[in-house]
Write a structure and sequence with these properties.
Blueprint (H helix, E strand, L loop, with lengths): L6 H20 L3 H4 L14 H4 L7 H22 L1 H39 L3 H10 L7 H11 L4 H19 L7 H14 L4 E3 L6 E3 H18 L8 H20 L1 H4 L1
Antiparallel strand pairs: 1-2
Length: 263
């Protein structure tokens, strides 16, 4: 089975699996250095736009991404060539990180605006709305505090406690990193769907046959849906997935337009 692996795919698999083992068992500090942090976080370093895509949150995260590369990568590498396959993987991965950083900055600016609004006017209703939008970061005891705060809106102790709570949420969100090769993998998926649209695939869940173009379309629509719904408790970086799809599609269209170098 592994003899059918093409060189770039095989090396990417080895690098990702190797780094997972090293970070998990030999150098756990890499789990702090290599993920991609919010650009204004004290943990952010520019090299993380590259390093994050070789780190994974857990074994299942690693397996799911590497399985996609294992399935779709070899045929793409045979068709595009090793150089273009590597370019596709790296550009989609790094590009997804850059676009996700911009998206995260927008979200953090929205969060900062909410915190500043409370500082300017410490209204219990503003705090209640903030808690509701970030409920996954709170336990049920916060609602007892909100009741007390609502009955005593001028209590300085309650106001300071609410400020501390909001700042903790802001700090936690600002220091929550992104890891994984999903952005790069989604670039692989869209390239496969565009170059081999009528290739019949057999899904594992659910176990049904589907053409590549329909599978990619479904993943794209599902990703857009999750971005629009924007469940704050969802720890999947859907915007990075969408970025990988878009960047991959643009890259393939560019190559197809320039057919002299594409074939």
């Amino acid at each position: 089975m592994f003899r059918s692996l093409t060189p770039v795919v095989k090396n990417l698999l080895l690098i990702n699996v190797g780094l997972f083992v090293v970070a998990s068992y030999l150098l756990p500090v890499l789990q702090m250095w290599f993920p991609l942090y919010y650009i204004q976080s004290s943990y952010f370093k520019p090299f993380q736009f590259l390093s994050y895509m070789f780190m994974h949150a857990n074994l299942w995260h690693l397996i799911s991404n590497m399985f996609g590369l294992f399935v779709f990568g070899p045929l793409l590498e045979q068709f595009l060539g090793p150089k273009k396959l590597l370019i596709l993987w790296m550009v989609c991965g790094i590009g997804s990180g850059v676009l996700y950083a911009g998206y995260t900055s927008y979200q953090m600016n929205q969060l900062n605006t909410q915190v500043e609004a409370f500082y300017n006017d410490p209204d219990p209703e503003v705090f209640n709305k903030f808690v509701s939008e970030n409920s996954y970061l709170y336990n049920s005891a916060v609602y007892d505090f909100i009741d007390e705060f609502s009955r005593n809106p001028d209590n300085e102790t309650y106001i300071q406690e609410a400020k501390n709570s909001m700042n903790k949420v802001r700090q936690d969100k600002g220091n929550t990193p992104m890891v994984g090769a999903s952005g790069a993998l989604f670039g692989i998926l869209v390239a496969f769907g565009m170059l081999f649209p009528n290739t019949q695939l057999f899904l594992l869940f659910p176990p049904i046959p589907i053409k590549a173009k329909y599978m990619v379309t479904f993943y794209g629509l599902y990703t857009v849906y999750n971005i629009v719904v924007s469940n704050p408790a969802d720890n999947v970086a859907h915007f990075a997935h969408l970025s990988g799809l878009l960047i991959g599609a643009v890259l393939v269209l560019f190559w197809k337009k320039n057919r002299a170098s594409f074939y």
